[in-house]
UniProtKB/TrEMBL annotation:
It comes from the Bacteria. The keyword Transmembrane helix applies. Its main location: membrane. Keywords: Cell membrane, Membrane, Transmembrane, Transmembrane helix. This is UPF0344 protein CQU01_09390. Pfam families: DUF1516. It is found in: Cell membrane. It is a multi-pass membrane protein. Belongs to the UPF0344 family. The lineage of its organism: Bacteria, Bacillati, Bacillota, Bacilli, Bacillales. The chain crosses the membrane at residues 6-25, 37-58, 70-88, 100-120. The keyword Transmembrane helix applies. GO terms for cellular component: plasma membrane.
Length: 126
């Protein structure tokens, strides 16, 4: 159940990020600000559901897997930070190139760990 909540919440967050970016590009600052606040709510849901998954790993895992869980946790927080950087920098009219690069790198690494390595994920890569 926690896995489904976690995956659903970050998928919705990605969709909301795309909506924020599109609204900013169209100049709809009010709509972008409202959507960004909803996106921030999903950051909280992601962190809480991710924390529940991490606690499950700490109950049942050991050794190298714990290192991967800690790495995935840090990467997940990096993804959220990059998403927020993208939204805030767009709102301020600043360059988002570096934030997008960070987002793509952190997101891909997080996906690889979550879907390819750790046992509570949906194994797509193996």
């Amino acid at each position: 159940m926690n896995t489904h909540l976690h995956i659903t919440s970050w998928v919705v967050a990605l969709i909301l990020l795309i909506v924020v970016v599109m609204l900013q590009r169209k100049g709809n600052e009010k709509g972008a600000k409202i959507t960004q606040m909803i996106l921030r709510l999903f950051y909280i849901i992601i962190i809480i559901s991710g924390g529940m998954l991490v606690s499950e790993y700490f109950k049942h895992a050991s050794g190298a897997m714990l290192g991967e869980v800690i790495a995935k946790t840090i990467l997940g927080l990096w993804v959220i930070t990059a998403m927020e950087l993208i939204a805030v920098r767009m709102a301020k009219g600043r360059s988002t190139k570096g934030a997008w690069i960070q987002f793509v790198i952190a997101f891909l690494l997080t996906l690889i760990l979550g879907f390819g390595r750790l046992p509570y994920g949906v194994h797509l890569f193996g």
